[in-house]
Amino acid sequence: MSDTTARSDTHLTRRLVQLYVGLTLYGASSALLVRAELGLEPWGVLHQGLTELTGISIGVVSIIVGAIVLLLWIPLRQRPGLGTVSNVFVVGLAMDGTLALVGDLDGFGVRIPVMALGILLNGVATGLYIAARFGPGPRDGLMTGLNRATGRSIRLVRTAIEVAVVVTGFLLGGSLGAGTVLYALAIGPLAQLFLRVFALPAPATATVTPAPPAGPDPVATPPSGQAILPQ
């Protein structure tokens, strides 16, 4: 039993580390796309547009928008997890922190590689935090909640949401460009790849064989299969 408990604790620790490394890396990769100035991911366009409008840092805007989106889960009857709430705060803080460390970039010879690195790291980050299985981010939960509430396909709901946020963000002054297009084309395959790379096996519980019933003629109990705890 102690070995099983130790393995379970190690598994949980790894999931937590993976979650917070992934969320931090997601914020950092989004900041690299900002510094590249070649176009942001869809929600990044909205965040940057709101930053232009309000003067608030893009990381804080990301936190505010994430919190508002999370409130929209209430009528959709979505249940947030630890990863959902952490996503709201960690991504925005990591984004502002990275922007404070990485200054403005000059020339396409630097900006294009930084854009490519930002997209790649965003895919790595997505694989890390989703594979940790602590719940979807606020924006993904909005998508799945609307899918369930409306009966529309995930693809249609996601496309409608992202078109709306991109157009709104662009009209507010957000950056729309080659990076936006490349992100849209690359993030799906990258996320799928890194979800496989960082997938975590479910921990196994100890097999418990019940004692035979009391009486003159006990019935032999066949060994049970190994139980797997749902995550």
Give the structure's gist in a few sentences:
The chain is an all-alpha fold. The protein has nine helices and no strands. α1 (2-36) packs across α5 (82-101), α2 (42-54) crosses α3 (58-71) and α2 packs parallel to α8.
Write down the secondary-structure element order: HHHHHHHHH
Structural class by sheet pairing and helices: mainly alpha
Q: Helical amount among residues, as a percent range?
A: 55-70%
Report the radius of gyration as a whole number of Å. 22 Å
What is the number of strand segments? Answer: 0
Residue stretches low in confidence (pLDDT < 50, at least 5 long) are 211-231
Largest sheet: none
Q: In percent, how much strand structure appears in the residues?
A: under 5%
Please work out how many helical segments DSSP would assign.
9
The CA-CA distance between the termini, in Å, is: 20 Å
Q: Based on CA inertia axes, which overall geometry fits?
A: globular
Instruction: Estimate the mean pLDDT confidence.
Output: 87
Question: Mind explaining what this structure looks like?
Answer:
It contains nine helices and no strands. With 231 residues, the protein is mostly helical. The longest helix is centred in the first third of the chain and has 35 residues, at 2-36. The protein is globular, with a radius of gyration of 22 Å. Mean pLDDT is 87; it is low at 211-231.
Task: Describe the secondary-structure layout.
Elements: H1 2-36, H2 42-54, H3 58-71, H4 73-76, H5 82-101, H6 108-131, H7 138-150, H8 154-171, H9 178-197
Helix pairs in contact: 1-5, 1-6, 2-3, 2-8, 3-5, 3-7, 6-9, 7-8
